[in-house]
Design goal:
The chain is an alpha/beta fold. Helices cover 41% and strands 18% of the residues. The strands form four sheets. It has a five-stranded parallel β-sheet with strand order 3-2-4-5-6, sandwiched between helices. The chain has a four-stranded parallel β-sheet with strand order 8-7-9-10, sandwiched between helices. Strands 11-13-14 form a three-stranded antiparallel β-sheet.
Length: 411
């Protein structure tokens, strides 16, 4: 290079070089719960109580983080997963959230389960500015970044699911008379709203609805009243125990409506078997994950990898339980976010990366299902495919359907 340019050029090159070096060797940034060797991730799960069939989710997530740690961790850091039981009780959830944030000093709380429990801790988590991330509940209110920037859902929200069923009914059964059985909380209300909104000016097709409380010992009177309404189409939007009771009662009554079942209760092991497989035949539900009981995935590489993971890290887990697929895919999404965080393990960056997922997919998600988020879209998964139960296994049918609800939800 001719000497007369050298002085100017070298200064510029040196300046650029020092900036680049600064970027590469930026000092790691940490909030409580993270350091050079460890990332503390908190979790709240119903290991006991009326929703304890979901405990499998927490156990699968713990096992997945064991696998990640055995393979060297994330950017050289091991995950310390601290999971507590709240028995599906909101006051207990508040107690456990405080313990995780104030005593254990976790970086974030990942996949706390249940609409009532998460509703109870949402204000606290946002006041503390601690991520309440990938909430294990499809309530639509986890997608409200304006009001609650530290809370984000994960699975398709219940209103999306309701809209997807409405699309199907309007197309195939425009004269249906619909009866709805729903859980009296935000989850149930959301699902009914999605169905009503999706039916639009045909919402009059819903001719009867009955709610129940999660603590109700029996739901028989509600099911009898819904049968007596003259409906030919039945929706059960209930937690696993309530759904199992509803399937059994509909079957025992000899009532044969077209039966739609909420995707959160589609587990063969946790719901359909206890209800009686003979009563579950022909039920329609929806999913976004591969079901290990579906013969079409028998040789699928994703399910094969998942089975190998279960054998090695969660050998006591039930490999026909969809909850174990769910926990695996959710944990993979969490790992992706932590990878994207690099050495900036602040709570703010955890939320920034969670809101910057682009076409992420797990090997156990259905083909065509992608996780996408942005600063004003806190709904990671909004697509599902319908499936029908043949008495032994679920079988997918139709196309992948999208049931997007307005982002930046107002309340």
């Amino acid at each position: 290079m001719p000497m007369r340019f050298a002085g100017l050029r070298l200064v510029t090159i040196a300046a650029i070089a020092s900036l680049v070096a600064a970027g590469v060797h930026a000092e790691p940034k940490y909030d409580p719960g993270a350091n050079g060797t460890e990332i503390k991730v908190g979790n709240i799960m119903p290991y006991s109580g009326p929703a304890s069939s979901y405990a499998v989710i927490g156990k699968t997530e713990a096992a997945y983080f064991d696998k990640i740690n055995a393979e060297g961790g994330i950017n050289g850091r091991k995950i310390k997963f601290i999971s507590y039981d709240d028995a599906y009780s909101p006051p207990k959830a508040i107690e456990q959230a405080r313990k995780l944030v104030e005593d254990d000093e976790v970086l974030l709380i990942f996949q706390p389960l249940g609409t009532p429990s998460n509703s109870a801790i949402q204000k606290y988590m946002n006041a503390k500015r601690v991520p309440q991330l990938f909430v294990a509940s499809g309530a639509t209110k986890w997608g409200d970044p304006k009001s609650f920037p530290w809370t984000m859902g994960w699975q398709p929200n219940y209103q999306s699911e309701g809209r997807i069923y409405a699309k199907y009914i309007l197309e195939h059964f425009p004269d249906a008379r619909i009866a709805v059985f729903w859980q009296n909380d935000d989850a149930g209300k959301d699902q009914v709203k999605g169905l009503r909104d999706g039916l639009g000016d045909k919402a009059g097709m819903i001719i009867a609805d009955k709610s129940y409380e999660v603590s109700d010992p029996s739901i028989d009177s509600q099911i009898v009243a819904l049968r007596d309404s003259g409906a030919d189409t039945f929706f059960s939007w209930a937690a696993p125990k309530g759904s199992a009771q509803a399937i059994r009662k509909v079957g025992e009554l000899g009532w044969k409506p077209r039966f739609f079942l909420a995707n959160v209760s589609a587990s063969v092991a946790g719901v359909l078997k206890p209800a009686g497989l003979q009563y579950a035949k022909d039920i329609i539900s929806s999913h976004y994950l591969k079901d290990p009981t579906d013969p079409s995935w028998k040789d699928d590489p994703g399910i094969t990898t998942w089975r190998a993971f279960m054998d090695k890290y969660y050998p006591s887990g039930d490999q026909v339980d969809l909850n174990a697929v769910y926990g695996y895919a959710a944990a993979q999404t969490m790992v992706q976010v932590l990878k994207q965080c690099g050495d900036d393990l602040t709570r703010e960056n955890v939320m920034r990366q969670a809101a910057n997922l682009k076409n992420f997919s797990s090997d156990v998600m259905l083909p065509g299902i992608k996780v996408n988020t942005s600063p004003d879209d806190f709904f990671p998964i909004e697509q599902m495919q319908l499936m029908q139960f043949d008495g032994r296994a679920w079988h997918l049918f139709g196309d992948v359907l999208t049931g997007e609800v307005g982002h930046q939800m107002g309340h």
